Amino acid sequence: MQIEEICRRHPEYNDLIFKYELRELEKAKLITKVIDLHNSKYTSDKNDGNCWIAYWLELTTRRPTDEFSLVTNKSARVSIPDCDLDFEDDKREQIMEYITQTYGVDYTCQVVTFNHMKARASVRDVGRALGIPLHTVDLIAKSIKNTPGKPINLTNSIDKTSEYYSEDFDKYVTKDEVGRDIYKYAVQLENKTRQTGIHAAAMLIGDVPLVERIPLMASKSAKTRYVSQLDYPTAESIGTLKVDLLGLITLRIIRETTKLIKERHGIDLNINTIPYEDPSSYKIIQEGNTIGIFQVENSGMTRYLVQMRPTHFGHIADMISLYRPGPISYIPTYIARMKGMENVTYKHKLLEEITSDTYGIMIYQEQVNQVLMSLGGYHAGDADKVRKSISKKNVGDIEKNRKIFVEGCGRTNGIDAATANQIYDDINEFALYGFNRAHAASYARLCLITAYLKANYPLEYACACLICEGNDNAKRVKYIQDATRNNIEVLPPQIGGTIDFSIQGKSILYGLKAIDGIGDSIAKQLAESSPVLVFEMKLKKNQLERLVQAGCFDVLGNRQQLLYGISELANYAKTVYKWKKIGQRLMFEPIMPQPKEKLDTYKTAMMEYEALGAWLVFHPLSVIDQRKRDSVSKTSDGELSPNLLLVVTKVETMTTRKGMKMYKFVGVDEYGAIEVIVGAKLSKTVDLKDGDIVHVSVNIDDDDSGHVGFASNLTMVKKNE
């Protein structure tokens, strides 16, 4: 049988797509295999054919006969597949350039985006235009509910029958003149296009010059010569192939880890050879040691995984797919059924065949399509269209399809309307945010790969995370704290050390370029210098201060002493630089004045934090009696009502609607950080500032983020107490 005959038997194939695929298969010398596959035992209702092609092309390492098979509907699909390709984040531009060169500048372009006015943004823009005080506008805007992914707008925010109704916003609109004026204009602006941008990942590829099919515009900010003037759904609808080139930092972390493993241990690993389905991968996840592990380091996810104790690839894929708005509410049910604590039930017997491997819960897009076909009598292509209309939150289509589904269930399988409506509610819940199974499998694989590396090469993996994420202060601090929890010491930066984070013995050396105020250029010079020769560089006073605070000059004396005499250091540096220009070198070192005040460990600790955003050698809590420190919870414990001893950082003063003062701050101990909100009543009793040490009881907002806590009690702690 020839490939043309296959095409003839499947007239639903889009001719453009098919020709493109045919060319690529011919290039890869896979035509014979495809023909054989078409008549082989692998061709079934499962997407084995496509999976085999992906496997042969080395796009995936999972064989279609693996236990976690990928199910979809290969027949009657009329839309172009959604192509998502993940690359190392520092290689994405290189990939875009490659695609442009391969297919031609006239056949490729990036994609325009249209940024629309949302409810809160409309309110804020109108308030700004009307000259209303920012504080007032902010209160009105924040009274609108803000749940990502939910279709919240100004109209349903004042509709008492809507689940998005906001009593506070309604009061502003109905009883406040300012609020009424803002609403009148904001509702007209809502959903209007505010500005255009360039899609970060999407590219269009055409079989003809794109200008023959879609309008284009030149852009200096684009990575390609042209940018489409149509958004990608519109461009796709007229036959243009869209691919998403996603930059994934996790892939770079894996690359850097394997590089360090090769350098230190002589073991040559890569993403395709890492034995990720290893007991150690599951064990570290079960223990909740998940910081840095792809897709599962969120504290809410971690708590669920500790409860679940996954032992199977499918468990990880399912959890990644469930931990999204909507399906997240089903996680406790999934875990209970998985552990045999709850019976698996089905709203109809036909659902058992479709969802038995996910404990009766609809998780994947493929399952949604199968339910629509098996129960509602939809053809495969129509089922996929319904799923897509739900994912795009097209309310009109959703309700129209509900009626068709309910009628189809009754006509095809004799299912009563009440049951059919319940099943459609589940479809709506999962189709709105569901992953396809291939996506989940890919992410689960990366999750287990990173878990394996962290479990077996903790030092190398921690260093790689810091190398790749070191420019982000919050993430840098998080990884340093995690290294500490895993008994890995992070040493302060050194003059003559390394520009980036590096491994020194069994410790990690802090990278010079990660010091606040020290860029790549200066860091390179510092790495090639020494604590004495560094004065030959033309350093500014504030740069010297940062180096002192970071501990770079610890070999020359106490940080407080050096900082006290920073002017002398700066003058010395200027003199050295001046003499260097005439080819001379000073033969003496600066005489540092002695500070009058007593040396203070706490002050030294705060210096370190100011320079590094973290504590490496000194920690403010070291000035607190050890017994008191041992008597409280740690931020890493994951308790719902922790009793914490925290250093206050990033204090923000807020005001209630009644004008009362509140505090929000980030509290840090030796193991992690938590954002704490202090209510108006409690705020009256304290005057918080950065560097304070507090004893606080916190009730964590149980929204599965685990990051925000509300103080139920707070007292100031004296230093050296």
Description:
This protein has 721 residues and is of the alpha+beta class. Among the domains are: 1-70; 118-191, Arc Repressor Mutant, subunit A; 470-612, no CATH class; 623-716, OB fold (Dihydrolipoamide Acetyltransferase, E2P) (Beta Barrel). Helices cover 45% and strands 13% of the residues. It is built from 31 helices and 14 strands. Strands 10-11-12-14-13 form a 5-stranded mixed beta barrel. A 4-stranded mixed sheet has the order 1-6-3-2. It is globular.
Which tags fit this structure?
721 residues, alpha+beta, 4-stranded mixed beta sheet, 31 helices, 13% strand, globular
Write a concise synopsis of the structure shown:
The protein has 721 residues and is α+β, with helices and mostly antiparallel strands. The chain is 45% helix and 13% strand.
Helices and strands, with pairings:
Elements: H1 3-9, H2 15-27, H3 31-38, H4 48-56, E1 83-88, H5 92-103, E2 108-116, H6 119-129, H7 134-142, H8 154-157, H9 167-175, H10 177-189, E3 193-205, E4 216-218, E5 226-228, H11 232-237, E6 241-248, H12 249-265, H13 279-286, H14 299-308, H15 313-322, H16 331-338, H17 350-355, H18 365-376, H19 380-391, H20 395-413, H21 417-433, H22 437-456, H23 458-469, H24 473-485, E7 490-491, E8 502-504, E9 507-509, H25 520-527, H26 541-550, H27 559-564, H28 566-581, H29 601-612, H30 626-630, E10 643-655, E11 661-668, E12 673-678, H31 680-683, E13 693-700, E14 708-716
Helix pairs in contact: 6-7, 6-10, 9-10, 12-22, 12-23, 13-22, 15-22, 18-19, 19-21, 20-21, 22-23, 23-24, 26-29
